[in-house]
């Protein structure tokens, strides 16, 4: 029993005394001091008093039936399973194990097209406007020690200019903004370089341990990825979409499904300006129809939902690049 519990065995026993009254202050124990019933409560499987003549002093194991001893032992074995570790202590322990040192710094310059898409474009010309109104710069610090391959691919995408001239595909105020959808550059989508590293970190549960617990958390979109399904089936497919949480609170729905790679160091006002841009918001009736279509297996339902939160006027990354590391950098974790 001591091996099961990892501590001296003790159990509360309501036992009849010679006077016939119930004495609930006696304990059956092996080693250690007597403690309160709150330390170990097996009241559901309370021991029954034996019909044998009671003893004046102490309690004998013989006074307990074998069946009730088995019930008590089972209750003792499972009791520790229900003692929960405080959430704050568990979160602190997890963060202490993660090295969130800033290893790389990148910037995104963001603007929007006040006139919308380029309606007068010629064949083959980009649909993105040539002149934008600036929204500001976002500076991102990356956790290269947490997910080195994922961060290396993201830095290469920035350094090669793959994100330059591309648009934010989704803006959900109070949650996150999303960019980096793959497709045609003429439509403001990403054409990634062909030499991105194969990423085995996508299969490692430890890659998903950091949470989207604060504004400005940057992650690679895995579950929230809205690239074409046929594109994702290619052997050389690499994830390029990324998310930035806008706050003011955490976004737990993203946890465990998208890989956190860094945090915003500067540019929270730019995030706020992006979050206030007008987006496509379906009314309640359209949402209900979409849910019904999804239930009956209509493929168009998912494509329609992908447009929820799409900016009505393109929000463009007008320039991107890598910055030298300056010390010290704030460490949110």
TrEMBL record:
Residue ranges of every copy of the PPIase cyclophilin-type domain listed in the record: 133-322
Gene3D superfamilies associated with the record: Cyclophilin-like
Pfam families assigned: Pro_isomerase (PF00160)
InterPro entries tied to this protein: Cyclophilin-like_dom_sf, Cyclophilin-type_PPIase_dom, CYP28-like, TAT_signal
Protein name in UniProt: G9808 protein
């Amino acid at each position: 029993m001591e091996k099961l519990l990892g501590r001296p065995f003790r159990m509360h026993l309501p036992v009849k005394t010679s006077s016939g009254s119930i004495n609930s202050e006696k304990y059956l124990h092996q080693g250690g001091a007597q403690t309160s019933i709150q330390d170990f409560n097996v009241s559901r499987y309370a021991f029954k008093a034996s019909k044998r003549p009671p003893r004046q002093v102490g309690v004998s194991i013989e006074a307990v039936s074998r069946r009730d001893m088995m019930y008590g032992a089972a209750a003792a074995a499972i009791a520790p399973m229900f003692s929960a570790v405080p959430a704050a202590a568990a979160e602190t322990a997890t963060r202490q194990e993660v090295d969130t040192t800033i290893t790389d710094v990148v910037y995104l310059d963001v603007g929007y097209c006040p006139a919308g898409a380029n309606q007068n474009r010629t064949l083959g010309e980009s649909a993105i406007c040539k002149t934008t109104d600036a929204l500001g710069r976002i500076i991102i610090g990356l956790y290269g020690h947490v997910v080195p391959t994922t961060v290396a691919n993201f830095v290469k995408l920035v350094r090669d200019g793959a994100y330059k001239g591309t648009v934010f595909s989704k803006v959900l105020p109070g949650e996150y903004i999303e960019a980096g959808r793959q497709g045609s550059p003429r439509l403001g989508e990403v054409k990634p370089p062909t030499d991105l590293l194969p990423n085995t970190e996508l299969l490692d549960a430890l890659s998903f341990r950091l949470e989207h617990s604060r504004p400005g958390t940057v992650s690679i979109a895995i579950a929230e990825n809205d690239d074409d399904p046929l594109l994702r089936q290619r052997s050389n497919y690499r994830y390029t979409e990324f998310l930035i949480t806008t706050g003011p609170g955490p976004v737990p729905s993203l946890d465990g499904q998208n890989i956190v790679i860094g945090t915003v160091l500067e540019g929270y006002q730019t995030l706020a300006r992006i979050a206030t841009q007008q987006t496509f918001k379906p009314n309640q009736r359209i949402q209900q129809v979409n849910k019904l279509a999804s239930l009956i297996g209509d493929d168009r339902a998912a494509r329609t939902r992908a447009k929820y939160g799409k900016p009505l006027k393109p929000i463009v990354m007008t320039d991107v690049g890598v910055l030298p590391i300056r010390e010290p950098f704030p460490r949110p974790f």
